TrEMBL record:
Keywords: NADP, Oxidoreductase. Belongs to the short-chain dehydrogenases/reductases (SDR) family. Gene3D superfamilies: NAD(P)-binding Rossmann-like Domain. GO terms for molecular function: oxidoreductase activity. The keyword Oxidoreductase applies. The lineage of its organism: Eukaryota, Fungi, Dikarya, Ascomycota, Pezizomycotina. It comes from the Eukaryota. This is NAD(P)-binding protein. Pfam families: adh_short (PF00106). The keyword Amino-acid biosynthesis does not apply.
Length: 206
């Protein structure tokens, strides 16, 4: 019996190829937290390519500035703004939403992507560091959602997405804080969607 041959796939699956969504989000306003680099940056890129106005956020100014400039040059017909702030500060979240609304309009798409992880055995993890993961990965997206949601409810329209992880459903060693946080935010999103399902056209994802 011959051994099956497996070929490595390099590239994007057709169903999520950004090109097919080009201009599909024209006129929409998107806010992506933690989008100065990494996953958040690529999400923002895909949204801009789809025609949405995008806000790039983060704590590191040069990353936010570089990504904002890069997207503005790549998609000149799309409005892209940058915001420097700390998602753990309620005042920064309120200022963020106010600035986005003033410069771009009401938020149609909220991507709660900002997050952190400390890979370390629980018994040697500093208590403040452990709880900081809960604050950034759980409290921050919940509080930002609390601020943005009322406007979406008024308009009976909106999309809210939380970046989760397989850590929400697996016992990953050295990631107790991260696993607890991702489990919590996943359950929060599910409960919130259930609460609003029969009343609102506000969509949640993970």
């Amino acid at each position: 019996m011959s051994t099956p041959e497996f070929k490595q796939r390099i590239g994007i699956y057709p169903s999520i190829e950004p090109e097919q969504f080009k201009e599909s989000l024209a006129g929409k306003v998107a806010l992506v937290t933690g989008s100065g680099r990494g996953i958040g940056k690529h999400i923002a890129y895909a949204l801009a390519k789809s025609g949405a106005s995008v806000t790039i956020t983060g704590r590191t100014k040069n990353q936010v500035d570089e990504t904002t400039e890069e997207l503005s040059k790549s998609f000149p017909s799309v409005k892209v703004i940058g915001f420097i702030g700390d998602v753990c500060k309620r005042s920064d979240l309120e200022r963020l939403v106010e600035e986005v609304t003033t410069k771009l309009g009401p938020i149609d798409i909220l991507i709660n992507n900002a997050g952190t992880n400390t890979f370390m055995p629980f018994h040697i993890t500093d208590a403040d560091e452990w709880w900081k993961q809960m604050e950034i990965n759980v409290k921050a997206p919940i509080e930002l959602t609390r601020i943005v949601l009322p406007s979406m409810q008024e308009r009976n329209s909106g999309i809210i997405i939380f970046t989760s992880s397989r850590a929400a459903g697996a016992d990953l060693p050295w990631a107790s804080g991260y696993s607890c946080a991702k489990t919590a935010i996943t359950r929060f999103g599910g409960v919130l969607q259930t609460e609003l399902n029969t009343l609102q056209e506000v969509t949640f994802g993970f």
